[in-house]
């Protein structure tokens, strides 16, 4: 006859352990119930839950920790010394409604960086008005690039001389602006916003962009009443669009003694990373990996890896879809692929892309970051791309949705077409045409002249 102990235990060793635990004075043993022969958790996940050495936990298939957030562009909620996202309880499953992302200051902003489109005389008047108002009326510390003050045309504005001595200057690539700027004002086109992004390789202060350039897809503000609009921002009455950036790391081929030729180069881009065949007449042959898994080999003119912000730039011209900047995603778009099976794809934000030359590639590949820092990658070199934890907080003129669709309609003429006629108009045309046909029929019925 089976006992209850034998029903609980699946082997003689477990039964012996259980009996020893019952007979002992102090219960120092614990019995284990029979395990299910099949687990509902996949075998790969069971191994991934096992404790790993500290060195393995900090590294993944690339050379830097991956993005921590899977449901948003970044877990970083602070921008610059005193700007941050206002906390809002309207969140579902850790996915925040973009409309709830609004700017707030936990101390009054005092420093502002003004970025002006260089070599453009039409912006000088607006630049002088803005700087004069910020310094004299708002008593703010204004930073400008040293190259801006080198413009000889500024000497024609008499009231600029009283402001020039009070401006703080810096040189891009030399001076560090970390924790010195509260918010940024851009005067020009989309290039000014891209330049502002390149100045901050970590946390970026909120950016307010005025449309004074040619295209202006990323510049929603008009300069007519700049005082009222800047005051709204200073008072914290503004919505934010978190534009995710791509963190790009270039690893060069190692030498025979195992030492790197050059240190890894890290660049943050706002629009896209473009890999192309350069001046070579041959097709590019590029291997694409996603989290260490080989996805495909790109044969064609090249490859575009873009953010949602960059989806309306080079990517859409190559056949990709337009994606709202608040969508956490990375777009991979081939440039004139040799195989029609490789179409533009969208992958989750936070994955790691590795791009390298195929062993059978005939030529090197060239890479550019937001149209700059163009360089060649040889056999053995690798490019790693992932979503950065430091987005660009772009201040909205209206809100996240209205600004984006307005820019689509204004710059790309999206949804602009000849409208279809209504039913009543068609019926009137059909009625008039039928009357004409009846008149023609009556004319044909009349006898012909003999």
TrEMBL record:
Record region (Disordered): 42-72, 425-450
Biased composition range(s): Basic and acidic residues: 439-450
Gene3D superfamilies: Probable inorganic polyphosphate/atp-NAD kinase, domain 1, Probable inorganic polyphosphate/atp-NAD kinase, domain 2
Entry-linked InterPro entries: ATP-NAD_kinase_N, ATP-NAD_kinase_PpnK-typ_C, NAD/diacylglycerol_kinase_sf, NADK
Organism: Parnassius mnemosyne (clouded apollo)
Molecular-function GO term, any one: NAD+ kinase activity
Enzyme class, first EC level, given as a word: transferase
Name this protein carries in UniProt: NAD(+) kinase
Top-rank taxon: Eukaryota
PANTHER family in the record: NAD KINASE
UniProt entry tagged with the keyword Kinase: yes
GO process annotations (BP): NAD+ metabolic process; NADP+ biosynthetic process
EC number, as in UniProt: 2.7.1.23
Family note: Belongs to the NAD kinase family.
UniProtKB keywords: Kinase, NAD, NADP, Transferase
Coiled coil, from the record: none
